[in-house]
Amino acid sequence: KYVYYFMNSLFWCFLEPPVGCEGGSAAPEGFPDLVPYRINVMDGATPVEGVNVQLVPQEKMEWTAGGATDAAGKLAISTIQFGHAESGVPVGTYKVVLSKMEEAPSAKGLSMEEYREKSKGFKSKQFCPKSLTDASTTPLTAEVSKGGELTIDLTRYK
């Protein structure tokens, strides 16, 4: 379980700098052909920002695909291989894994004493339903053929 979080963290560390800088370097040999794919994450009628989404292919691959939702709960999937990232995802069937840790209370405008009192007892916890945070338990799948979109309502899994 901790290996997943470590690998997921490494994925996002490498993904963030190259995204938006596409075309700056040639795709590595064997980099897959990609099609556009979007994921929307909602909690009822409310969009959820900051959900890390990973598409886990059914076959072992040398690349990974995913991203994080924006303020509108939307994400255009990107694929990364050996530090090279591009928008889109290869055609295939994927398990969809979600993760978002709840944030600590804000310290903005508070004294250290006020912040200690406000955050007393706070323990970081997973915002997404537990079944959706692991590829072996998630019921979510994405069938990617010519692109497309998947909307996930977290209330269905709570």
Can you describe this structure?
The strands form 2 sheets. A 6-stranded antiparallel beta sheet has the order 7-6-4-3-8-9, with helices on one face. Strands 1, 2, 5 and 10 form a 4-stranded mixed beta sheet that branches. The chain is built from 2 helices and 10 strands. With 158 residues, it is of the alpha+beta class.
Which features would summarize this protein structure in a list?
158 residues, alpha+beta, 2 helices, 10 strands, 14% helix
Q: Strand pairing plus helix content: what structural class?
A: alpha+beta
Distance between the termini: 21 Å
- How much of the sequence is in beta strands? 25-35%
* Mean pLDDT level: 82
